[in-house]
Design goal:
single chain, alpha/beta, 24 strands
Length: 950
């Protein structure tokens, strides 16, 4: 056994056990069975048990590696790793040192530390809870099903086997003989009796002979050695519902002009079976060529486990955070130096600058962002949408291009009989009745086309009468070579009829006459061309055409067989369509109105795809095929993708390449798909969208999972994403501009005033009061005009916004300074500052400072709140655009609370505030009126120049 294992290990790198996926499967598809079995180290009659065990020990189980999730503690800590959170924690540390550690005994004040800690904790907990919910929902959808498969094994131990591994290149011009089972391994040891064994998928190894029958799931990637009427459902890979016939013959790879081969597509690999697909009918013997992570599914999963590229949300939020953090890091040292220089109290200046840093940092940004995303996810959940990644909500709102597969997304993923035509192209029930008899009485694979024929016939006539009027005599099953199948029936007058349906060209090849409304005439070449022209027109409309022929009283050659399909009469043809979803056209129109361009990326034929696009309102001015995508350079592809609406015959990696090219052109791209072939493209996009019926790999790579496969749900999701972004950005811009204005005001006050315009504690309390009013922002309304086009993060717009709006706020702060310094404070303190200083009246000076700081404290809360309402909309606030009830209630409550604080004896004493005369509020209202007028003018000028407020 040890020698066996060593022999296998020495040869491993020259077998199909390992290697590049494209080369591995390409070799298996394009080489003879003998070569494939030799490379896979297969044995005639199946692997010996000990050889199979040795392979299993060396290469591991046949299972795709799963993504290792971080422990709960690590995931919780990662929720606090945002730039703003780290800045806030740094500020908390500085505040703890200055306000607690270095503060004199009895004067320690941990208020700032507590406030920051609360903000950080709220943000992190909300983020953790939301992400955990998404992970739990996804895990529930991604339950794996254990399964077994039947393999052929032998009990004999060959310790001393030596196998020649000389590879014989496949001659594409020759045709390989196709022996049954694994006779291609004739040069390998053959002794002992074989037996069939049911084993778990995990125990399957390369070289195993797998025995498959109808209903079986394919356990690994295999090369077909022998097949009988084998049809496989590859929906899990391609998303296409139509089963694919598999057969043992070698695939001849297409070559480019320079002689190199095109990469094989899944649809071309007609002799390969892929892990995870299902045998719909027939039987086969196949040799395993790849297991576990080396399978097609495994390699796709490995690709998805790689670190994801940063999405629009990640990049945008990082850039915004950088701008605000740099702003804080630049302005706070300036405030510290100016105050220290002008006042001489450096410790007080340090405390004040730290308070300014806390004040100008949008402390609630993590909470607001997380709450907005959480609310968006909750709203989406009400519409049967699971949001796995909270940031995907905003990404969905930012997309300006939606790439989608065709089948099941734009189309209904079903086949309907669109037309039943006679040879003149006229609707004729006579054709449908004969087609029904063929589909109903056949016992082979009843596919979607047969079901469509039976359903359509039932809507037009009494099918029970048809069934009772005929008796089945015999049938000639479908096969890939003929591409047709026949049924022989006998009517109540004892006449027999052979009815054949299949591909138009194949049916025409066995017809010598045509039926013109019960008139039989010879089939001429002109009629053949006319029929083919009509069929071509139907194909151009996206329809699949099947021809129907019949022969009365056929005389069988022995039993009925292929030789009897001759001298038949063509009676007409049937046109089938995978119809567009009823909601597709409406959804695409609405997405277009919202600035989202829909592009179709499909592995299907370009003619069918173009016809479907036309039906749903996608104008196909240009299309690009997979072969062209493969040959284009990066720069050329980036140019072509801009003008192209339809991409057809794409491989999975070509889909991903198209998505990456669009993103490099500064587009925010969403991709919707449900097959393994869509997973790479979903991963490459800003937001991957899948459905609950999708394959596990697709659901794992998706950010959003739909419980109903409908573009209208996406259209509503786009709107919700923009609403989420709108509420987030209005907080950032309003707060950043207001804080910038406050910093400018502090700079002016530091130069002109002999005292601080507001104490550090007052500044922190003001920031907390404003922050609490902003909690309602995620529930605020958003103007319809804002939702009308894609929105994405733009750090430069925030900088420009601060420079435009901030000085307006600062102007009214300076006016408030003048009001308090020259009018209100002298009236309360009993003299001007100069008079009090000259008289050495310390009590009067303290009263003067307290009145001044109280006035700016109250005015700052009013201006910050008013600017929030003024800047939340481009329209007139309160009149043309009303805020949500929650935001209105909280802002009114915030203004009222701050305005009342100076009149609460113990509170005002602790905060250094005093009650102001009623006349102050008259002045304040006048200031606010002027503020709203000026901010409205500046806002209008900004919108005219920039095109948008937010």
């Amino acid at each position: 056994m040890a020698k066996t294992r060593r022999a296998i290990q020495n040869q491993t790198n020259r077998t199909l056990d390992r290697g590049d996926l494209g080369a591995l499967l390409g070799f298996a598809a394009t080489h003879s069975e003998q070569s494939v079995c030799r490379k896979a180290r297969a044995y005639t009659g199946g692997l010996p048990i000990d050889i199979a065990q040795a392979k299993l020990d060396l290469n591991g189980p046949n299972a795709v590696s799963e993504t290792v999730e971080d422990p709960t503690v690590i995931r919780f800590l990662k929720c606090f790793a945002s730039p703003f959170t780290l800045i806030l924690l740094a500020l908390a540390a500085i505040s703890y040192i200055t306000n607690v550690v270095l503060a004199p005994s009895g004067e320690q004040d941990p208020t700032t530390v507590i406030i920051i800690a609360i903000m950080v904790l709220i943000s992190g907990i909300i983020d953790f809870v939301q992400s955990s919910r998404g992970a739990s929902a996804a895990a529930a959808l991604l339950q794996m099903v254990t399964a077994t498969t039947r393999v052929r094994r032998r009990p004999i131990n060959f310790d001393d086997f030596e196998v020649s591994h000389t590879e014989t290149p496949h001659d594409s011009s020759a045709t390989d003989s196709v022996p049954h089972a694994a006779t291609g391994t004739a040069d390998m040891p053959d002794a002992g009796s074989s037996f069939d064994k049911e084993i778990p998928f995990e125990d399957v190894v390369v070289g195993d002979l797998v025995l498959l029958a109808s209903g079986d799931m394919v356990p690994a990637d295999c090369r077909v050695l022998d097949a009988k009427d084998l049809f496989v459902n590859e929906t899990a890979l391609t998303g296409e519902s139509e089963p694919v016939e598999k057969f043992p013959t070698v695939v001849h790879a297409r070559r480019r002009a320079d002689g190199t081969r095109y990469p094989l597509s899944l649809s071309e690999c007609t002799n390969l079976l892929f892990a995870g697909t299902t045998v719909q009918s027939g039987s086969a013997t196949a040799v395993v060529v790849a297991t576990g992570d080396n399978t097609y599914v495994g390699r796709m999963s490995a690709l998805l486990r790689q670190p994801a590229t940063k999405t629009s949300f990640d990049v945008g939020l990082a850039s915004v955070s950088k701008v605000l953090v740099v702003f804080m890091l630049v302005m706070c040292p300036i405030v510290f130096i100016v105050n220290g220089t002008m006042k001489g109290a450096w410790l007080d200046a340090l405390l004040f600058s730290v308070s300014v840093a806390v004040g100008i940092t949008p402390q609630m940004l993590p909470v607001i962002v997380t709450t907005c995303l959480s609310r968006g996810a909750t709203q989406m959940a009400k519409q049967d949408v699971i949001v796995k990644t909270p940031s995907a909500i905003q990404n969905l709102g930012a997309i300006d291009i939606l790439c989608t597969d065709k089948t099941g997304t734009i189309t209904a993923d079903e086949v309907i009989l669109e037309r039943h035509l006679n040879v003149l192209g006229e609707e004729d029930e006579y054709v449908l009745r004969y087609a029904f008899l063929n589909s109903y009485f056949q016992t082979g694979l009843r596919n979607l086309i047969d079901s469509a024929i039976i359903n359509a016939t039932g809507q037009l006539t009494d099918i029970n009468h048809l069934i009772d009027s005929y008796t089945k005599v015999d049938e000639v099953p479908f096969d890939f070579e003929r591409r047709r199948m026949s049924v022989v029936v006998e009517d109540i007058t004892n006449n027999t009829h052979m009815i054949t349906k299949g591909a138009v060209e194949e049916i025409l090849s066995v017809c010598t006459s045509v039926n013109f409304k019960t008139h039989i005439s010879p089939l001429t070449n002109a009629q053949r061309q006319d029929i083919l022209r009509r069929v071509h027109d139907l194909n151009h409309e996206g329809m699949r055409v099947v021809a129907v022929a019949q022969k009365d009283n056929p005389r069988p050659v022995g039993e009925f067989g292929v030789d009897d399909e001759a001298d038949m009469t063509l009676i007409g043809y049937l046109a089938f369509l995978d119809p567009p979803k009823a909601s597709a056209a409406e959804a695409i129109k609405k997405l277009g109105e919202k600035g989202v361009c829909v592009k179709v990326l499909t592995g299907d034929n370009e003619g069918v795809a173009a016809a479907v696009c036309k039906k749903v309102g996608i104008t196909v001015d240009a299309l690009l095929l997979g072969e062209e995508v493969e040959n284009l350079s990066e720069d050329a592809l980036r140019k072509r993708v801009e003008q192209t609406q339809l991409f057809a015959k794409l491989s999975p990696m070509q889909k991903a390449r198209v998505v990456e090219a669009l993103r490099k052109n500064s587009h925010v791209v969403g991709f919707m798909g449900d097959g393994i072939n869509d997973a790479a493209a979903m991963r490459a996009s800003d937001v991957g969208i899948s459905v609950d019926t999708a394959v596990d790999v697709a659901k794992e790579s998706a950010d959003i999972i739909l419980l109903q496969k409908d573009l209208l749900v996406l259209e509503r999701g786009v709107e919700e994403g923009r609403r989420t972004y709108g509420n987030t950005i209005k907080y950032i811009k309003a707060t950043a501009s207001s804080n910038f204005g406050n910093v400018l005001s502090v700079m002016v006050a530091s130069v002109l005033l002999p005292f601080l315009p507001m104490s550090a504690l007052q500044l922190l309390l003001l920031g907390l009061a404003y922050t609490l009013t902003c909690i309602a922002i995620p529930w605020d309304t958003v103007d319809g005009s804002f939702l009308a086009r894609p929105r994405s993060w733009d750090a430069r717009s925030i900088t420009g916004f601060m420079l435009w709006i901030g000085p307006v706020s600062s102007l009214f702060d300076v006016l408030t300074f003048a009001l308090m310094f020259f009018v209100i404070s002298p009236a309360i303190a009993g003299g001007t500052w100069a008079e009090l200083a000259a008289a050495g009246n310390a009590t009067g000076q303290a009263l003067f400072i307290a009145a001044f700081q109280t006035g700016w404290f109250v005015e700052s809360m009013w201006t910050q709140t008013f600017v929030l309402h003024a800047l939340r909309t481009e329209k007139l606030p309160f009149i043309q655009s009303r805020p949500s009830a929650a935001l209105m209630i909280l802002t009114v409550a915030g203004i009222a609370a701050v305005s009342v604080l100076p009149y609460l004896p113990k509170v005002s004493e602790a905060l250094g505030l005093i009650g102001l005369p009623i006349s102050f509020f008259g002045w304040l209202l006048a200031l606010m009126l002027g503020y709203l007028v000026l901010i409205s003018i500046v806002k209008a000028l900004y919108v005219r120049r920039k095109g948008s407020l937010l």
